[in-house]
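Q: Got a minute? One more chain.
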Amino acid sequence: MSNKHLAILLVGAGGYGRLYMDYMWKHDIGAELVGICDIDPELERRFPEIAAHHVPVYPSIDAFYRENRADLAVLVSPVHFHTDMTLACLAHGTNVLCEKPLCLTTEDAIKMKEAAENAGCFLSVGYQIDYRRDVLKLKEDILAGRFGKPLRMTVCHGFRRGEAYYARNDWAGHITAHGREVFDSPFTNACAHHFQMLTFLLGDSLRTACDVESVEAELYRANRKIENYDIAALRFRMAGGVPVLYYTAHPIFTECWGPIGVLEFEKAKITYQYEKPEFHVHMKDGTEFDYSDIQPGSDMQKLLDAVEAVRTGKPPVCGVEADLPHIKAVRMVQSNPIRLVSEERIDRVELNGDRFLCVRDLEKTFEACAKEGKLPSEMGIDLG
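A: Always. Here it is, folded:
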């Protein structure tokens, strides 16, 4: 397919969708943004560059398709709309790049996967870490047995979230919205990437992720104004018995905590930090190396790979198969009880015009748990 004929539809432009708009307008990606679907009647007033680029805005997907076609739809809507919107785009023969999480049930995921196959289209998921070339090289090395069998994976990761975050829409921090499940939490949404990356790295092929067998979860809520948990200490047992420990939270003092990752194998320990991971390999024979010589690709590699996939017919690396374990894990975690954090442990902080709840020493507490491979209760720690 010729580049100049490739048309992109963006569904949802007010939040993260803004990054997609800006990227497409600032870079020649061999495709054109031909339409935006958004329910905000003030969208064009809020973002005058939409009119400046002569991109029409439609109130619904149906309204767009009454007048247009698209080769690729990029969905940046809330999770509880993903299934219906994905199916609608696929029904019109449009390939789909859907932001994470794809959905909240394996049944919906399989339904979308089958719809894509029947339409002769691909459905990819926006876990941007999976598209990084250094991550893909690390996975190739794991699959080749370079480090031996995996023994344990541990990650600490959190983003501080204040009143502005929860006030930005009607689903942040909620279990349901508009009668639909949303399960919004640090594990489901903001800090989902690095858990999904672990399942992806443990997958038995380049396009799959490792299944989750069970979870032990200690969930807490510091913010009394939200419905769901905002703190989680989790220990998963993956297929094959590998334990994965994941500590994540929003009511923390650190604006961006970690990620701090330790991946243990028979022959090596791999450590990494930062949201854009930099992996350092420490082999048990004393040799060390990293993946800094591999260019990771663009921050929007997921979009570039989707555009390339439309042209070549080769689907992007992160499809439904790579997201199924996280979808399953979200529901498994959500089935556990949520306890309130003791008021005595909570500090209230005002920064840059926003107000935050911060659980005292939470980062230090979770890092100590991670070092021992234990949950807080196993360390004699009770946040309640």
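A: The CA atoms of residues 268 and 284 lie 5 Å apart.
Q: Perfect, thanks.
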